[in-house]
User: Fold these one by one.
Assistant:
Number 1:
Amino acid sequence: MAGTLEWQLATVTAVRDETATVRTFTLGLPAWQGHRPGQHVDVRLTAADGYSVERSYSIASEPERPDAIDVTVERIPDGEVSPFLHDVVVPGDRLEVRGPIGGYFVWGASLGGPLLLVAGGSGVVPLMAMIRHRERAGRDVRTRLLFSSRHAEEIIYRAELDELAARNDGLEVVHTLTRSSPPGWTGYTRRIDDRMLGEVLEPLGIGARTYICGPTALVEVAANALVRLGLPPDRVRTERFGPTGT
Amino acid sequence: MSGRFVTRGFVGRRGGTGAGSDPDAEVASRTPPGQYLTRDFPVLSAGPTPRTPLDRWSLRVEGLVREPVSWTWKEFLALPVRDWVVDISCVTKWTKLDMRWRGVSVDTLLERVELDPSAAFLVAWSDGGYTTNLPLGDVLNGQAFVAYEYDGRPLSPEHGGPARLVVPGRYFWKSAKWIRGLRLQAEDEPGFWESLGYHNRGDQWREERYSGD
């Protein structure tokens, strides 16, 4: 990353509900330098008296799209920024943004595969940028996404993931639901564990490039299990959010 | 762009997250720019958590020293120790006040070696390959320590146990988890995040988050 990451004024050009608590904002960025899938941006909100807050949000869109990015934001009930984004921001609003940020949790088609993606909840967002990029630039990369959600109606990007997987072009999506599952559900119905990871990894082999994003507990379980299954630790890249719970 | 832009409709809640809310001015004065207060202790790591058995653990001081020195876990625990209560700021925007640690001052470690006069920087290196760089001036005189207890308990692996560097005056990525060595150098050498777009110094009070800030 060269030079200073300047704050830019983005214009919100679209707002879309993904689930009841997750929303995607399309940000028009005339001076966007481009990003790599997996990177994030900082968003800054400033009040009239100068009080300001910043948060980081993962980019959900592929870099092939010019002059705009999507950020997908989960509404944290006691948060300060995400409720504002959900409850106040509408198309036409402007937001201060800078980025892209992060140079490790990134994947591009030139890195190749096979690719194993493991997501918990809104941890799917940076992985979605990788999946969308793959569709545009790396369809020959065999890819499996293991995606843990609590309930079926909380699965982020479900329709798009179904559609992409239905192309049978080397992307497979495996869901697990940890709290409830609808009648006829054929995916897993438990928290991610060693056996599940072993089954999902098996067709890819231990040469898989692996990206895991989600709550800390999920990331710890998944990363440790994959190392035990034989993946070299430096092939397992992680991004975590939330406390340890202890 | 200056900070003059005002976000339509934003008033703000002031003073951080619900858990950490505190209108007290002293608390506000301890929160660096762009940070929010939390009472959680979030975990951020770039890869799997390494687990080195204590009987194979050692801490080494090497590089521009007359004689490198290495401590086993038992020897490390026998070094003079002290308690620290410090505020920590992570570049991902959280700040946690009054974190209670026990550990060995970097001063204590460096007193056990004879530094080459040209030594001006150090690289902290860790299990798993992580590195971070600091000028000596950022770690001497009680500014940094190697912690092995947090809040009265052994430091958990997720938080960098058995031992991590803690440099409260810099963003938390400088506080290398799973530390195994300090290498003294004449020249600065960017570490892991410092090579991936993050600021070389990382002073949270100057908001030195990213390269070029």
Number 2:
Amino acid sequence: MPYLLRRFMQSLLLLFVLISFVFVVGRIIGDPALIMLGTSASETALDQLRENLGLNQPIWQQYLVFLGDLVQGDFGVSFRYGFSMMPSDALRAEGTPVLPIVLSRLPATFLLAGTALVLAFSLAVVLGCLAAMYPRSWIDNLVNVISLASVSVVQFWLGLILIIVFSVQLGLLPTGGYGSWQHLILPALTLAARPLGRISQVVRSAMLDELSKPYIAAARAKGVPEWRVVFVHALKNASIPIVTITGDELSQLLTGAMLVETVFAWPGIGLLLIDSLGRRDLPMVQAGICVVAALVILVNLAVDFAYTVLNPRIEMDNRGGRA
Amino acid sequence: MTAVDAQTLPQDEAHDRAAAITSRAYFGALMRDRVAFVSAIFLGLLLIAALGADLLAPYEPNQANLRARFVPPLGTARDGGFHLLGTDELGRDLFSRLMHGARVSMSIGLLGALCSGIVGITLGVLAGFYRGLLEDVLMRAVDGMMALPSLLIALFILFVIGPGFGNLILIFTLLHWMVFARMARSLTLNHQQHTYITAARAIGGSDRRIILTHLLPNMISPLIVLFTLEIAVLILSEASLSFLGFGVQAPQSSWGLMIARGREYISSAWWLVVMPGAAIFLTALALNLVAAWARAITDPVQRWRWLTPPRRNSQPIDDED
């Protein structure tokens, strides 16, 4: 499969570029010792840290060591993880390897992003199809309003509004945290808003295109029930743009989760990243960025793969980008 | 619409008249689309509020007044001062603070979009005009950068180089030029096939002249639409970064930072969170609506429906894409 193989190599290259970028920004533009200890640190403490981290070596040697460590899954040890606010983490000491900690936060992020995506996708397909079936009806207008509002709203603000309404005023749901299904509702709703708007708009226009094609008229003429015409015949053929936008939105979700996790104290990878940024824990930040970026790149690759399954012509075209 | 008249008039006069009718027609089209009209008015008022905040704001934005703490919207403080949108934990008037915050949020949006637009359009036009290696490298870079999570990278760079107004603009330029480059390149490729470019080249126009006086003016309208949308995107990004503590820093204040501050009082003073977020929402919404209008009106296929006055039983508003 030359096309997919090439896409795979491109993804690897992109990951490599990103990792190098993280190195360049962290080591060359910034001074790791200064980043971690802050400007108020004494010169001896800075020197001590530089010595410990091997920052006195030539830069290319540092780069090779950095890459070599990454290949072995060694992102360095955390600097101040002991101060974490998560109760379950509080007992761990400084000097813990960062990668296992980052990976241990993945399930929470997956749960949140997955729930949001399922929620947004199913609702968007139904709304988009209905809007395409009844153009200019109230449901069509609703889809337009939702999609416009979803690109104009700041996610974290939406989350705070939901907290004000459902937690503070009505007292129905917890304001944040992790554990029961009640904890999941508000963050998932917040995160689902944006993809809901984007996907439903794409479903609507793709379905409008499909529904005007001759094979639909043929299906109707031979007496196929309307719901079957729309949800089986047309939807299947409209799936390519829908899959593309859903993949794009999934990679957006992974980064959007960062803000939503911060608002709801949801212990995912995003909250860990933001906490680590606040604690100036450079190794943890680097590991978090690399893991999230790798996930995003993986999602993009998966979308391209889904593409060739849905539309075999792409394989034939043998083009570099998405059609 | 003016073609018939124009033939009977001397050249200059015809030109003036065509211009006058066109701008009147554009204005008429704006008036007829009520949603876009209201959005444009809102943006205009916002601009006035942001520029004239020093003169127009009812209170000093950083003036603490402990006798007026946590006054709810439309409330009156104990010292008799009326506060349209209430006051915060130090008794500062929220409406005045929003006006001053508008200045920061809007200027970051505008400047960021302007800088990334200039970089992106320059690179995109050059890539589309000269093709070759430059185009290959540039477009690969665009594809690669578009695939990366930009908020994450912005956070990391700001973490290293430090937050602040200037750094925000730098980050936005670095991470948002690709959209402009991609569009400018495809527009350039498209326009280069037209006869007027061949003609300009045939009479000996230099590359520079062709790009500056022929290509760019003809590409400008879709780029302006994109520019408008980017302002909205950047205002939202700025809010997110400021909310996380890596954007605008106190004593400067933007809408995003105001939400972050208000969050502490979410259970007692909801307006501190709701109002700045509503300001962001309305601004981004208005920008999106105006962009949608501008896209429709600059699209030759859709334009006639807008510029010709509506007849009975005909709907001028049609946003099919």
